[in-house]
Amino acid sequence: MHDEFLCHVTAYGFCGGRRIGVPLGTYRAPTLALALWWLRDRASWIAERLDPHPDAEHLPSGALVPVADTVPDVPAVLRAWCADAAGQERVAEELAAGRLVRIATSDDTTEYELLAESVDALRMQRMAHLLGVPVA
Q1: Any idea of the CA torsion for 43, 49, 51, 55, to the nearest 10 degrees?
Q2: For a disulfide at 7, which of 28, 53, 107, 116, Cβ 3.0-4.6 Å?
Q3: Is 70 helix (H, G, I), strand (E, B) or coil?
């Protein structure tokens, strides 16, 4: 029943005392497998940008410095999520059941959020609201 999935990636930070969300990407996946692939791809993409290889050609020598051990390691969390087969299966089950999935991690300045939800579940919620039917 849940054949299409809407996926979002957003970074949240504070600016002028207000929480601001910056969209990093949206994808309407035609299958569950593609939704999971896209979420993993975006998580890897964020991890690589936050923690690139020190010898990358596009970085000047000395441009990267280690962060303190007390700073949460967002790239490691995202890479671990990508490699967690059992976790991926749980996400697939939640999405297949029509539930919203949220994967989030943060460091001392920014929260990174990956969201996915069934397009069919969204449609059913909207119709139920229009018809005045309670949604479970």
Answers
A1: 130
A2: 116
A3: coil
